[in-house]
Amino acid sequence: MKDLYIKLTRERSPEFQQMTKIYIDNGYKQVSKSCLNKKGIYHLQQMFENYNYFKSKGKNVLCPTKLQNDVLIFDYLQGRSLCNQLLECITQKKRDKFIQILFEYKKFVYNFGDDKEILTLSEDFVKVFGNVQLSQKIGARHLNIDLVFENLIESNNQYLAIDYEWIFNFVIPYEFVFYRAIYSLFSRYSKEVENFIEIGTLYNLFGITKEDIKNFEIMDRNFLSYVYGKKYNYDLILLNYKKEGFKVKELFAKTMKRGSVTAQLYFDTGTGCNPKQCVEQKISFTENKKVEFDFALDDMVKNVRFDPSLNAVMIYVDSIAGITKDGQKITIEEYTSNASFVIENYLFFKKDDPQIMIQNVEKFRRIIINIIYITQDMFEMDEKLDNKLLKDNYTKELEKNERLIKSNKDLQKMNNIYIDMINELRKNRQ
Predict the structure, then answer these.
(1) Are residues 25 and 173 in the same domain?
(2) Where a domain ends, among 226, 251, 276?
């Protein structure tokens, strides 16, 4: 079995923390979901029950899954997502087809759950979404609130939901599902979509009023608190939920492997990093390429700033060293960076203009920097980050267990000493 992708949701409350994997087993690509916490087993089982519920109703709307040893295993669906179809309409400026797809989506959502019902604020509803004022809203039980466009894949001329984690056995208004799908689309691809159609137009298309939007914002806020816990900041959660917005063309450009990279070194002589005091070096970019940069310094340089690229990039810092006047090579271990994440020597720069700052270099005449360029692919960077976090977490747990084992052995030794002492005292008394 070969793992292709791993994603962790450790920022959630313990009962909802999961690991999602995409892997190849016996030549077939599959997806699995497992718990990161024992408290999450019920939530995982509930997802499987949701699948069986729809299967028993004869509704083929969910991606097939099976439960094995508390692990959900899904088929990896081949096909285009509804989101990709909408983005294609945007790039081709096909507004009529865009609207037609949305009407098909609307029909899909109406047919998804159980029969239509008038919403009543049950105790379970209030626990998840809060006590919102929704009058005479029509909805359904077993409605998937995560029917965003990216979660629907067209397979064999029908749409299947690949994520059905959030299906509830109480009435959810249809408009709330539409609201979340529209909001997600504009959050992720805001610039391109806004130039194509206004968000208000889509809200009107799905019968969502201004009053609905206020109530649905409250519902979504309460739902995120339910999933992530009230200790988390809502705005930070929302940033992760929304992700970063790109134009469609920009998004595709960021996923491409660029053919070259430009590295720069800025010299600070006491007045900061000046573009006029900068040298640059262009190299061809290939993944896992090891490159050595050797820069000469003069007596005036106090600090340097090394930019491994002009754009987002993931690198591995193999070594940074300075060469003194007498030719001595000294390893530089202290440096700072604007990396989004740092794991061991891996630096994840998820935004453009990555920087590594090295201070107090007056005694050096040269700076030698050895790095390995891992990737410039934004999605691949996320995948590698999740894998590194998973490995880091596993290592910490392993070290923790080893400390506990050592501690238990030490306690056992002390216990044996005390037993020997007690036995010796008893002999002396006799």
Answers:
(1) no
(2) 251
> What would the pLDDT profile of 110-168 be if each residue is shown by its tens digit?
999 999 999 988 899 999 999 998 878 999 999 999 999 999 999 888 899 998 999 99
Same domain, 125 and 182: yes
d(CA 367, CA 321): 6
Q: Nearest Cα to 180, choosing from 132, 146, 222? A: 146
Q: How far is CA 415 from CA 56, 195, 383, in A?
A: 59, 74, 48
Which pLDDT tens digit goes with each residue over 5-29? Answer: 777 787 788 899 998 888 888 888 8
If asked whether residues 106 and 47 sit together in one domain, one would say no
Q: Which of 228, 251, 274 is the last residue of a domain?
A: 251
Which DSSP string do the residues of 138-158 spell out, in sequence order?
A: EEETTEETT--GGGEEEETTE
CATH number of the domain where residue 276 is located = 2.60.120
Tokens for 38, please give them.
Answer: 């024992």
Report how far residue 176's alpha carbon sits from residue 218's, in angstroms, rounded to the nearest whole number: 11
DSSP 270: S
Considering its fold, how many domains does the chain have in total?
A: 4
Residue corresponding to tokens 């001329």 = 157
Distance CA 247, CA 97 (A): 20
270 and 219, same structural domain?
no
Q: What's the pTM? A: 0.58
Question: Mind listing the pLDDT tens digit for each residue in 220-249?
Answer: 989 988 998 865 544 445 444 444 433 333
CA contacts within 13 A on the Cβ side of 404: 6
Question: Residue 402: which domain range?
Answer: 380-430
Rounded to whole angstroms, how far apart are CA atoms 51 and 144? 11
